Amino acid sequence: WPGVGVSNGVSIALTDDEGRYTLEPGEDAMELVFVIQPADCRLMQTFHRPICEIENLGEDLKNQLLQYVEFAKGHGYYAEARSEVGTDVITVVDHLAPEIAKDFPNITFFAGQLVFEEETFINRVLHNQTAFLAQRKLVFHGLPMIVMPVRVL
């Protein structure tokens, strides 16, 4: 995405046609990089995307979920998929889970939490506590959720 502003707290650079940028290191520069949201984009997870691409993201998600549904049905299980695209996964979970629980009153939700042998700042930022935040939200809706550790080698 060209023209997206990126800052290190001292200077600002704009991304080129391929989304690349260069920031010169400086004595007063921060170790963090900030992305400035363009007016015609919305934040999706950790990156800005043009609005038209967000709409395509929903279609792509539905197509991917359909493959899982067909896989489960092919093995003799009942399956259906529900999805919603949003800027905050906890808000989406908070909206979808109670609706799903109305149709499936004995449901148990599952989530995976990546576990690294050596945790770094980047791991904490990129692989945060989303699963546990979702679990907390569902508990207050009276819905059970199990967080499964996923070991990263």
Structural key phrases:
about 150 residues, three-stranded antiparallel β-sheet, 7 strands, about 35% helix
Structure summary:
The protein is of the alpha+beta class and 153 residues long. The protein has helices at residues 51-74, 89-103, 121-126, 130-139, and strands at 5-7, 12-14, 34-36, 41-44, 47-50, 109-116, 145-152.
Question: Helices, strands, pairings?
Answer:
Layout: E1 5-7, E2 12-14, E3 34-36, E4 41-44, E5 47-50, H1 51-74, H2 89-103, E6 109-116, H3 121-126, H4 130-139, E7 145-152
Parallel strand pairs: 6-7
Antiparallel strand pairs: 1-2, 1-3, 4-5
Commentary on this structure:
By secondary structure, the chain is an alpha+beta fold. Helices cover 36% and strands 22% of the residues. The chain has 4 helices and 7 strands, in the order βββββααβααβ. Strands 2-1-3 form a 3-stranded antiparallel β-sheet, with no helix packed on it. Strands 4-5 form a two-stranded antiparallel sheet. Strand 4 and strand 5 form a beta hairpin. Helix 2 packs across helix 4 (130-139). It is extended and about 55 Å long. The chain starts with a strand and ends with a strand. The mean pLDDT is 79.
